[in-house]
Amino acid sequence: MTPGVIRRIVRALPSCVMLKHEDWPGLEKITALRGFEADGSMRHVAILCGNNGLFLDYEMERGADGANTGYAFPDMLVDVVRLSAAGEREAAHDHFDVHLPLLRYEQQPGCGLAVRKYILQLRGLLSSAALRKPGAPLTATARSEVDHLLERLARRDARARRVPA
Asked: What CATH number did the domain enclosing 55 receive?
């Protein structure tokens, strides 16, 4: 939907109070919507971002209110939102940037959910990384790559250290 269509929906439907922003490219759309609010042509609506958080750092700068998405470290997403809201731009970007390699890996079509569940199991948040059919488990090679990414991430973010099973 274009920003203009979203503005028409918001004007017509008082019950519309939030937008799940999951569009590529989307940064300019957030800016346009916040511009409509600034010029008085649209009332405020919350904007929560998806797309696995791949652009959360800049989406927050453009005026998003937070994230409504998946990632194996949702606590990192919370930190980026908190730091952005506090005006700590560089800290938010630094915190986000160390997760980008893993975030990118988890974004892969087909195996992304398996990656996320594997990590959530390693973090002690799930008892099993099993997927419903037709989802396939990670291969040994993919698990090795994820383990490598976690080892690298753990150098900068202690949450990535493996939890003993």
From this structure: 3.40.50.2300
